[in-house]
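User: Show me a protein chain along with its predicted structure.
Assistant: Here is one chain, sequence first, then structure tokens.
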Amino acid sequence: MSIPDITLNDGHTIPQLGFGVFKVDPGETERIVSDALEAGYRHIDTAAVYRNEEGVGRAIAASGIPRDELFVTTKLWNSEQGTDSTRAALATSLETLGLDHVDLYLIHWPRPDLDRYVASWQTLEELRGEGLTRSIGVSNFHRPHLERLLAETDTVPAVNQIELHPAFAQRELRAFGEGHGIRTEAWGPLGQGKYDLFGEQAVQAAASAHGATPAQVVIRWHLQHGIIVFPKSSTRERIAENIDVFGFELTADEMAAIDALDRGLRVGADPDTATF
């Protein structure tokens, strides 16, 4: 098994398939991330607001895997946006993770009502220059938010991490990012169980054709679209299953059938109106 790397616009690379820890119980995080690392994942996506950075850090330390073989992402929470608070937030995350740098630091949500994401981004540029994060990006940014960063700052985000799954494919936003060298990452890539994605005929048919599970088919759909994806699971069996997606390839017809499931079904918060 070889997970492909994607080259970002700053020249750094990121494993296209990773492991997410959203809603992973902090008390279980070390065990679960250890299972993921043992299964072969080398890309871990966490965030300050998940309250499980400490468990991620313990699992990394216990793994014995060289730091340069791992890719770690964490995120700036909304309440910490601002010039000085952004710097302090990353310092806290690094201390909690037990690391001297992360590979990717993201602004978690734009919170346009606060009007602090540009100042926060400028601080991220400084933190990258100081080596505290190798790459910088954003999460949940819509086109107007991205356009403002492009107009008012010097650095194009390396990634935009957005809600993305077959029923909410965000094609226009992905295309805008692609046109500016911004890679798309998918959160909630399996729909978070909020609709019957695995019961869709297109998914079921592809799973049957390839002897795969519906989850493997959907992960494969993301990968073949060039999306960076990191499914989350708490069980060892499912963790291993979700990384075992490189022994088959969806046909053009199967991809098109899954593409046709797109119906603008957002299952998470809207970044334009979210105020948490």
